[in-house]
Amino acid sequence: MNIVIVGTQWGDEGKGKVIDILSEKVDVVVRYQGGNNAGHTVVVDGAEYIFHLIPSGILHKGKVCCIGNGVVVDPEVLLQEIAGLERAGIRPARRLKISDLAHLILPYHRILDQLREMKRTHKIGTTNRGIGPCYADKINRCGIRMVDLLNSRVFADKLKDNLREKNEIFRKVYGHPGFDFNKIYRQYMGYAAKLSGYVCNTALLLDEAVNRGKDILFEGAQGTFLDIDFGTYPFVTSSSTVSGGAAVGTGVSPDKIDKVIGVAKAYTTRVGEGPFPTEFPARFGTFMRDKGSEFGATTGRPRRCGWFDSVMVREAVMINGITDLAVMKLDILDGLKSIKICVAYKYKGKVFREFPHDASVINGAVPVYKEVPGWRGAVAGVAKFNGLPANARSYISRLQDLLGTKMSIISVGCARKDTIFL
Ligand code: IMP
Questions:
Q1: What mean pLDDT is predicted for residues 171-195?
Q2: Which residue puts its alpha carbon closest to atom 5 of ligand 1?
Q3: pLDDT at 193
Q4: What per-residue string of b and e applies to 186-220 under the rule 16 or more CB within 10 Å gives b?
Q5: Is 122 a catalytic residue?
Q6: What is the CA(132)–ligand 1 centre distance, in A?
Q7: Is residue 321 lining ligand 1, measured as CB closer than 6 Å?
């Protein structure tokens, strides 16, 4: 079975853990969008691994892990991640495959990301990794791909072309001295030598896997509301984070995808700027952030926290074709007297049950809450749904009713064993 895993909120839902668990049951794991703006934290036998580019499936022996054409790759970060795995005794040599069509992040992308962010009046709060500028070049048809990196003449040509135009913009618009061709060329040829063994036509590799009846897991990064089309634009990332992106970002046709599993936190978090209707008031927000260790895996930034928003997640269920939902971090709600679930928004006397697209409505939306009683004691370590406190069970059932999709996984702690399968 070929399964897509997608985030249903603003990323950081806990996809890493779900992917880690499901990786065991599949043959191939593939990333289809984003870059090292993502950070998946996986805890195995007490050891914590943070992945930015390499699918976390690499922790499972024998699994092939692909970085699809839809991903943007910072070669320096990728090499650091490979080195980190080798230090932990994991040899990705024959199991890691990088699409020859994946676009490269270059130093000017990273710097432009920072300079543009500094100049913006309405900041996006990007991760400053050069993700947006790299995707912009891809769409602008001046990007440089893995396959270009492996051909020194083509790489030199494309780099020269880019620097001719970009250095002028850097100097005139941003007062930045620009970039030296030789320095980047030498640095990237060094990366080419180290990465060439991993680069191949991954669409072909995946097609062969499908034809041989192998199971593929498509690993989504970020979340539905950071999607370039369906997210809270412009406070979004620059790729298609939704399940449709899995086909475009890997070359596997949509008819080969069997199932989409959505991942939602039992509450909501967001990193960076942008609207957040159910955001907690400051003091309670700080309390919940500490309780849930809500700090970015990539930038370490504190995450904003709020109540579960069923208007958002219902929209995500629709856009992604979600049939199964994984609810994460239920344990963080332990001990609360009561819990709120957002069921609609109110704006200027009108009630919105569907997620509005007009930014002024989302910005001014007042959540309509259903309040349910909390539970005493801890849910961590509970292995069966029936073992949960009655109020925790009814919270989950309430979410299920509101979202119209079945809950397949409930996570009650960081470790693999703290998971309830339904
Ligand atoms: P960018 O992807 O670096 O361009 O950042 C755009 C927006 O997406 C910012 O608000 C980031 O905080 C957010 N973002 C990007 N990647 C992630 C992620 O993996 N988790 C959560 N937020 C993210």
A1: 97
A2: 126
A3: 98
A4: eebeebbeebeebbbebbebbbebbeeeebbbbbb
A5: no
A6: 10
A7: no
266-421: in CATH 3.90.170.10? yes
Using a 6 Å cutoff on CB, does residue 127 contact ligand 1?
Answer: yes
**Is the CB of 356 within 6 Å of ligand 1?**
no
What is the β-pairing status of strands 350-352 and 268-270? unpaired
Are 8 and 313 spatial neighbours (Cβ–Cβ below 8 Å)? yes
CA pair distance 248, 33, nearest whole angstrom:
9
CA 65 to chain centre: 16
Query: Domain 3-100+199-261 carries which CATH code?
Result: 3.40.440.10
Q: Is the CB of 124 under 6 A from ligand 1?
A: yes
Distance from the CA of 418 to the center of ligand 1, in angstroms? 27
pLDDT per residue as tens digits for the range 252-289: 999 999 999 999 999 999 998 999 999 999 999 999 99
27 included as an active-site residue: no
Distance CA 420, CA 75 (A): 38
What is the tens place of the pLDDT at every residue in 372-400? 999 998 999 899 999 999 999 999 999 99
Domain boundaries, the chain: 3-100+199-261, 103-194, 266-421
Q: Count CB atoms within 10 A of the CB of residue 235.
A: 22
| DSSP state at residue 171 | H
pTM: 0.96
Q: In whole angstroms, what is the distance from residue 7 CA to residue 5 CA?
A: 7
Distance of CA 125 to the CA centre of its chain: 16
Return d(Cα 270, Cα 279) in angstroms, integer. Answer: 9
Say if 3-100+199-261 and 103-194 have the same CATH topology.
no
Cβ–Cβ under 8 Å, residues 155 and 149: yes
The closest residue, in CA terms, to atom 16 on ligand 1 is 37
CATH T-level fold of 103-194: Adenylosuccinate Synthetase, subunit A; domain 2 (1.10.300)
